[in-house]
Design goal:
The complex is a heterotrimer.
Chain A: H1 39-48, E1 51-58, E2 81-83, E3 90-92, H2 96-99, E4 105-111, H3 118-127, H4 140-148, E5 158-162, E6 168-170, E7 183-187, H5 203-221, H6 227-244, H7 256-262, H8 266-279, E8 284-290, H9 298-322, E9 329-334, E10 338-339, E11 351-352, E12 356-362, E13 369-371, E14 373-374, E15 381-383, H10 388-398, E16 406-409, E17 412-415
Parallel strand pairs in A: 1-8, 1-9, 4-13, 5-7, 5-8
Antiparallel strand pairs in A: 2-3, 4-12, 6-7, 9-12, 10-11, 14-15, 16-17
Chain B: E1 15-21, E2 26-31, E3 37-42, E4 47-51, E5 57-60, E6 67-74, E7 96-102, E8 106-111, E9 121-124, E10 130-135, E11 141-146, E12 150-155, E13 161-166, E14 172-177, E15 183-188, E16 192-197, E17 202-208, E18 213-216, E19 221-224, E20 228-231, E21 237-248, E22 253-262, E23 268-272, E24 280-287, E25 292-299, E26 301-308, E27 316-320, E28 324-329, E29 335-340, E30 344-349
Chain C: H1 2-17, H2 30-40, H3 45-48, H4 55-67, H5 73-81, H6 87-96, H7 99-114, H8 124-136, H9 141-150, H10 163-166, H11 172-184, H12 204-214, E1 217-222, E2 227-232, E3 238-240, E4 251-253, E5 274-276, E6 285-286, H13 290-298, H14 304-319, H15 339-351, H16 356-365, E7 399-400, H17 403-413, H18 416-424, H19 430-437, H20 442-448, H21 462-470, H22 472-477, H23 485-491, H24 495-507, H25 513-524, H26 530-542, H27 545-548, E8 549-550
Antiparallel strand pairs in C: 1-2, 3-4, 5-6, 7-8
Helix pairs in contact in C: 2-15, 2-16, 4-6, 5-24, 6-16, 7-8, 9-13, 11-12, 12-13, 14-15, 14-16, 17-20, 18-19, 23-24, 24-25
The chains are: A alpha/beta, B mainly beta, C mainly alpha.
Chain lengths: 429, 352, 551
């Protein structure tokens, strides 16, 4: 029988205490404040300005061609394992640049998420939960936008840089947290929609029409003021602030040498944009790299895709580190699932979630650590088996939260992370 | 010299003769010039030698990655065999060297018929995969190609690097010597075929096999490449094999295709396709001295096809037990060797 | 002119106030009993209550609430100038029977029932037409619900009603949750695993009683019909355990409503359980269907939760907040703000056989509905926090426009509607105009709508502000075109007349003296680019809080 344990009763060992305040009380609708909320705590976090970078390797990257190589075995494939900057830890030869940053990275090699479907794996790795018919869980990005974001920040709390597709708000991502915390997709790294003032409208005219609007509001609100009207008028101020930050979305502002370091391809440009956004105050940036769904020619495709991934990723780690941001930026390298140890007749690897790996770095992460272990041919986890719930606890813990806390939605306490799981201590600083 | 075409050859009567089994999927296969052995490269990093008559199996262990490229050089032989189906033409009893190359960029040279073969020498040849090797008609030079976009020429006797031919802009998938001994032909992932003037070490001209390549925009990856390449014995026809019509790179949805060039003009002479639709890649091609072309495919199962140069559709095909991954023609012109995903090399007879 | 209009409004207000709460009789019309209940709930009611809404406030409000858009400038002029005392009632009676109301209320019901789920199995247009024709015929709510809960999608005549099940993939847990929320006002989701830990009234047995109507049904693609339909098994008993129960005792239940009696189920002879047995390519039809009983069992006048739910939801629609709030948490620990009023409303709507139109009419006739949204002067200015709480209904609540209201309101305000009507000429029927303009709504739903499967929730975000401020949609509507607002304004040479036209068109009221002057100054400052200055000024009013809310 399914149970979300979304009830906060003591029988589930769930604390009833919430741990964050809503930033814009009146606009949050369903998000009621828990009586025991500690606003000061949230304020403290804002001061520390923690942020998250998620690299999403779309389609399911092979753990054997990345973080958990098994060279010389039946399942290992043709690639070699190479030493890294951390003695004793080896990764696949396709990651030579990343290997030299292993002292920043932690590997989780004992992942068993038991979910081999793209959509369900995507959901699981973004929410830390399995799909349930009558309950939608928010993405990590939405949770972080909620917990780490500040109402003063005009940047969307959860930014998704995709190689293509539609830009705009993906309101479902935030589930019960509300569309304010949903992801805003920047398709092919383009700035959010409607950020530019219409060409025919001069700056002076824009100013004048806003002044007229503000005067009209003042008259109307003299006798009618609610949290909702405040939120509405404030949304224009935020829009104006974001318009002033327009350049953050424009990597051509970077020197050509920097663009070269990241690589003149989509993923390189998108990593560079992620750095600009994180530096510019973004809370959660997800960069999507596609595609890894290599049922056919797994090895050729991993050479190509990881060849594109490795250097920009390493460069991004370096830049964050050099700017002193890495310690306050949680970095995640995730996928829907891994790929089968078995190599199929078309040199492909298929969907596989029973024993795979992810990488973490930065804020709250113990660099150079490894948790979990798989057997010699990578077909099973032998030590430190964890699932998506553990990962969610680990991310929240790394960001300094008590991951056992609840959200409160219309009187209902809802555990932020799956109460049946716990943080992975080995990879936490 | 090429044996006279035997009147007994009839591809339509092709049948399985023998089967040699290994316990790891195979990538490539070659008969040695003496015709006594068949060699195969495997996913367990071994090269396997089978004695055709006795079936005796010998492992050549030394590679650290998968082996697909195999080629032979005879120290005093005149005309030797390149990788992808190039016709070998001499029967010689002189000592023969096997070159095998792996996906770690390494080439090993082995005494091909020795009892317990040990690598005679090792070439750290390329950065990344080496997918094909070829030996010059006079046996003096070895050509290799790699994922480092390079083609390299090596001295057979001492393993020294003679030339580094740069010009490809992507992974180089195949290489063969022209029988004139003056030209080398290389082909890459994007279906660009380059003819090199060996005297000048420069590109002489390019042939277009781009039909064997596609950038799949939904998966954002390159798919295709010249997976097998062969010349006719007289050097007038060049065949490039691979996949075309790719609609889904990551599921391998596409059709096998062999592009047949008129070597002199560089023009496409024929696009050889299966008569019955097949999903997969053409992994091997050979040009038989009697004029027909044989190809094998793997994808949704395995197939063997026979074409005539003047007809786009095969005149005969044979369903294979599983995915075929490489093809070679015996020096006697009467047998084919096919390397399979299931670890077997199977020998097929072309005789009635 | 102005003083006399104000005077008229005031006189009208006095007439309304003359109905004192004390004299309302038990058989008085519902709207009077509503006002009595609201007034009686507060001893200081007279001090707290806002003045009656002005004609302009009422006009905009009733148009938005009943037709989903604002009136034309001409309609506004006519209404504001009309001296007849019965004009409000006449207007609302006209609107309630208008094709615009049927169209709009179908959208309201669609959002309520489908919560913007994507259309996979039943085309949206068919579903909207089903709802529209139901509203136009004033189909009673209980009948509509029975139709929706009874259709299995196989009969072409009733298939469209199965959308509620089909778009939810017939998933029994999802349906149990949504049926309890949307038709009974009780969110039983927490009871899937155990009795609700915080709400004593919500029991796990309630959840599974409802679930038992649904768990035998599933969605199948019927090969013969080539359609997704419901298939129902003849067996499948519901058992459950509480995750809190250390003994893990297994309980079972047949189909029954929360607090309702167990359903009597016929005994079917073995081997004769099916009318149509399940096959690989088709649906199964049992001789005894639990699914078929859900509608008739649930949608009944003697089902207390059913009638409370619809009364509360319609109240919330008109008044801006449910007496029970949130709308789906009706239980004893979350009592209604006015318990007796909710009971009165629930009994009334059941007694009028779930006539929604008649019920809405009574709500709209009430003084409670027709109160101003302006705080009484004593609560304004720096006295924030002193104002009456929203649950008192002493001041009309501001209601953010729904995405549909915003889209249709903007189309009317910018005169796109007028221009299209003009272009259609004699063929400008409601249906023709609707089909021309309806495609414009999608970007508003995308930008302002709640995510699929979630109840509507107001949120003001900067992407919405950017959409309105810089986006091409509204900007396009502000480009001059024969008959539209900017076109009309451009032809007016008298500035005061121009400002009047602007305010009547966008804000459904006359401009104040201050506003007349401000607008005139705005235009005077930009003599060289008057056409764009007009657009900018119109935009500023469209983007104002006054436009964004139904006040």
């Amino acid at each position: 029988m399914w149970c979300s344990y979304a009830c906060g009763s003591s029988e589930h060992n769930i604390s009833r205490r919430g741990f964050f305040a809503t930033a814009l009380g009146g606009t949050l609708g369903a998000l009621a404040l828990d009586p025991l909320t500690r606003p000061a705590f949230t304020h403290e976090l804002n001061k520390q300005q923690k942020r998250v970078l998620m690299i999403w390797l779309h389609g399911g990257v092979s753990q054997l061609e990345t973080w958990d190589p098994k060279p010389g075995t039946k399942t290992g494939g043709p690639f070699q394992a190479i030493p890294t900057s951390v003695p004793g830890i080896h990764v696949c030869e396709l990651l030579p640049y990343t290997a030299q940053r292993m002292h920043h990275l932690a590997l989780v090699r004992g992942l068993n998420t038991a979910e081999d479907d793209h959509g369900k794996g995507y959901y699981l790795m973004h929410t830390g939960r399995r799909q349930e018919p009558a309950m939608k869980w928010p993405h990590l990005g939405s949770v972080c936008a909620k917990l780490l974001g500040s109402s003063d920040n005009p940047l969307p709390g959860y930014i998704l840089i995709t190689p293509r597709g539609n830009g705009g708000v993906n309101s479902e991502d935030a589930a019960f947290l509300g569309p304010r915390y949903a992801s805003v997709a920047l398709s092919d790294g383009h700035a959010p929609a409607n950020l530019d003032r219409p060409a025919a409208l001069t700056e002076a005219a824009d100013q004048q029409r806003h002044e007229f609007r503000i005067h009209a509001n003042q008259r109307f609100l003299r006798s009618r003021r609610t949290a909702q009207t405040e939120a509405y008028t404030h949304s224009y101020d935020q829009a104006a602030q974001l318009m002033r930050k327009r350049d953050l979305f424009d990597i051509s502002k970077e020197p050509p040498t920097v663009i070269d370091r990241y690589g003149r391809h989509d993923f390189g440009r998108h990593c560079l944009m992620a750095r600009r956004l994180l530096e510019g105050g973004a809370t959660f940036v997800k960069v999507m790299h596609t595609n890894y769904d290599t049922h056919h020619e797994n090895f050729d495709f991993h050479i190509e895709q990881l060849g594109e991934f490795d250097r920009p990723f390493a460069t991004l780690l370096d830049d964050l580190h050099d700017r002193g941001l890495l310690a306050s930026t949680l970095v995640l390298v995730l996928s829907e699932f891994g790929r089968t140890p078995n190599i199929n007749r078309n040199y492909g690897r298929d969907h596989w979630s029973r024993a795979w790996s992810i990488a973490l770095a930065g804020c709250g992460i113990r660099g150079g650590s490894v948790s979990g272990k798989t057997n010699a041919d990578g077909t099973a986890v032998t030590e430190g088996q964890v699932n998506g719930g553990h990962l969610f606890h680990t991310y929240l813990s790394a960001l300094g939260f008590n991951s056992k806390k609840n959200f409160y939605i219309e009187q209902r306490p809802i555990p932020i992370a799956d109460p049946k799981a716990a943080p992975i201590k080995e990879v936490l600083a | 010299m090429t044996p006279a075409p035997t009147p007994h050859i009839d591809p339509a009567k092709t049948h399985l003769l023998k089967e040699y089994k290994h316990d790891s999927p195979l990538l490539g296969c070659r008969f040695d010039p003496s015709g006594q052995f068949v060699f195969a490269g495997a996913q367990d990093n071994n090269v396997i030698r089978w004695h055709l008559d006795s079936g005796k199996k010998t492992l050549l262990t030394g590679h650290k990655s998968w082996v697909r490229a195999l080629a032979f050089a005879q120290r005093r032989g005149e005309e030797k065999k390149g990788k992808e189906g190039e016709k070998r033409t001499s029967q010689s009893s002189s000592p023969c060297l096997l070159f095998s190359a792996d996906y770690a960029g390494r080439i090993l040279a082995w005494p091909s018929s020795a009892e317990g073969p040990k690598p005679a020498h090792t070439l750290e040849a390329h950065h990344g995969w080496v997918r094909a090797l070829a030996v010059s008609p006079n046996g003096s030079r070895l050509a290799s190609c790699g994922n480092d976009h390079l083609v390299k020429l090596w001295s057979v006797p001492d393993g020294g690097l003679i030339h580094e031919l740069a010009g490809h802009a992507c992974h180089v998938y195949n290489v063969v010597f022209h029988p004139d001994g003056k030209h080398l032909i290389s082909a890459d992932l994007q279906g660009i075929v380059k003819v090199w003037d060996l005297a000048k070490g420069a590109i002489e001209r390019e042939l277009d096999a781009k039909i064997l390549y596609k950038y799949d925009p939904s998966f954002r990856a390159d798919i295709g490449g010249v997976r097998s390449m062969a010349l006719s014995a007289d050097g007038t026809l060049l065949a490039c094999a691979g996949i075309t019509n790719v609609s889904n790179a990551f599921a391998g949805v596409g059709n096998p295709l062999i592009v047949l060039f008129d070597y002199q003009s560089g023009k496409q002479k024929q696009l050889l396709r299966p008569k019955t639709p097949f999903q997969g890649t053409a992994w091997g091609v050979v040009l038989h001295p009697t004029g027909f072309i044989a190809g094998v495919g793997g994808g949704n199962g395995g197939m063997l096809w026979f074409w005539k140069a003047d007809n786009a559709q095969d005149f005969f095909s044979l369903k294979l037990p599983t995915n075929a991954r490489d093809l070679d023609l015996h020096p006697n012109g009467r047998h084919l060797a096919i390397a399979f995903f299931d670890g077997a090399v199977r020998i097929y007879s072309l005789e009635k | 002119m102005l003083p006399s209009r104000a005077f008229l409004s005031l006189r009208f207000a006095v007439t309304l106030l003359a109905v004192s709460p004390a004299v309302v009789l038990a058989d008085a019309p519902l709207h009077q009993r509503i006002d009595q209940a609201i007034a009686a709930a507060r001893p200081d009611f007279a001090h707290q209550a806002a003045a009656p809404a002005s004609d302009a406030e009422f006009l905009r409000r009733i148009y938005l609430d009943l037709t989903g858009t604002i009136p034309t400038a001409a309609e506004t002029r006519a209404f504001l100038k009309d001296p007849s005392p019965g004009k409000r009632q006449a207007l609302l009676d006209r609107l309630l029977t208008s094709p615009e109301h049927a169209r709009y209320f179908a959208m309201v019901l669609d959002v309520l029932l489908m919560e913007r789920r994507r259309d996979k199995y039943v085309p949206h247009e068919q579903w909207l037409e089903y709802l529209r024709s139901s509203v136009a015929a004033n189909k009673p709510w209980d009948q509509l619900v029975r139709e929706i809960l009874s259709s299995d999608g196989a009969d072409p005549k009733t298939r469209v009603a199965a959308k509620f099940y089909l778009e939810r993939q017939a998933e029994p847990h999802l349906l149990t949750r949504d049926i309890s929320r949307l038709f009974l006002g009780t969110n039983l989701q927490c009871c899937q695993c155990h009795d609700h830990p915080r709400i004593d009234d919500y029991k796990q047995a309630h959840y599974y009683g409802l679930f038992a109507f649904l768990n035998r049904s599933s969605l199948v693609i019927d090969k013969k019909l080539n359609l997704a339909v419901l298939s129902e098994k003849a067996d499948g008993e519901v058992t459950f355990q509480s995750v809190f129960d250390p003994a893990k005792k297994t309980q079972s239940t047949g189909p029954r409503l929360p607090e309702g009696p167990p359903l009597k189920e016929p005994v079917i002879e073995k081997g004769k359980e099916y009318i149509v047995a399940s096959t690989a390519g088709g649906r199964a039809v049992p001789r005894f269907s639990r699914h078929a009983l859900l509608g008739p069992t649930l949608a009944r006048a003697d089902n207390e939760s059913f009638k409370r739910n619809i009364a509360n939801r319609l109240w919330a629609l008109m008044m801006g907040r449910g007496l029970v709030h949130p709308l789906d948490l009706d239980h004893s620990a979350n009592p209604p703000s006015h318990p007796e009023l909710l009971k009165l409303l629930a009994d009334d709507i059941a007694a009028r056989k779930f006539d929604m139109r008649g019920f809405l009419r009574e709500l709209a006739l009430s003084q409670t509905y027709q109160r101003s949204s302006e705080l009484p002067p004593q609560f304004r200015g720096d006295k924030e926090g002193m104002e009456p709480e929203p649950t008192s209904y002493t001041v009309a609540l501001l209601k953010p426009l729904t995405p549909e209201q915003l889209a249709w309101g903007l189309m009317q305000a910018t005169g796109l509607t007028d221009a299209e009507r003009q272009a259609l000429g004699p063929n400008a029927s409601e249906a023709a105009l609707y089909s021309r303009l309806a495609p414009n709504v999608a970007p508003f739903v995308k930008t302002f709508g709640s995510p699929p499967g979630q109840a509507p929730e107001f949120d003001a975000r900067l992407d919405q502000a950017l959409f309105l401020a810089n986006g091409p949609v509204v900007r396009g509507w502000l480009t001059p075109r024969p008959g539209n607002l900017i076109d009309r304004l451009g032809k007016l040479t008298n500035t005061d007349a121009l400002v009047e036209e602007l305010y009547l068109s966008v804000l459904t009221r006359w401009p104040s003296a201050e506003e007349r002057k401000e607008a005139a100054d705005f235009l005077a400052a930009r003599p060289k680019d008057r056409p764009t200055a007009l657009q900018d000024m119109a935009w500023a009013l469209l983007a104002s809080a006054e436009f964004r809310f139904n006040h």
